[in-house]
């Protein structure tokens, strides 16, 4: 069964907290330490996790919550921007292609509902599963970002990927 994306609902907030505030739920490449457990409720009450500058969507397969996709507006010049996207898939659904499908859906959604020309994503150089998923989703590897992210007490190198509107043909 294919996945779909849907807006965050109030009953999704504990699931989001598990995937972002629990080392078991985040996975090795997304664990940045604990945060305020009420931050998801606050953001949901502010804007339902969707704004002009970004948002979250739940990755679903039928009634199952698979994970979530996020995107944020990144200014690329004084007059242009792109979207940076990311995801976390729940541990029991990793390695089954759901992340790849969700990344394709979000990229298509962003191109269909904005004038953006570029969607980008990055991951740590050691996150080979995510690199494969991005490539399968149609993203192009652009290069290494040295010392770009701090996690687990060390600066981590990253890999930048992009998809342009023209890549969708």
TrEMBL record:
Residues 3-166 form the N-acetyltransferase domain. GO terms for molecular function: acyltransferase activity. PROSITE patterns: GNAT. Coiled coil: none annotated. Its EC number is 2.3.-.-. InterPro entries: Acyl_CoA_acyltransferase, GNAT_dom, Ribosomal_N-acetyltransferase. Keywords: Acyltransferase, Transferase. Pfam families: Acetyltransf_3. PANTHER family: N-ACETYLTRANSFERASE DOMAIN-CONTAINING PROTEIN, RIBOSOMAL-PROTEIN-SERINE ACETYLTRANSFERASE. This is GNAT family N-acetyltransferase. It comes from Nonomuraea typhae.
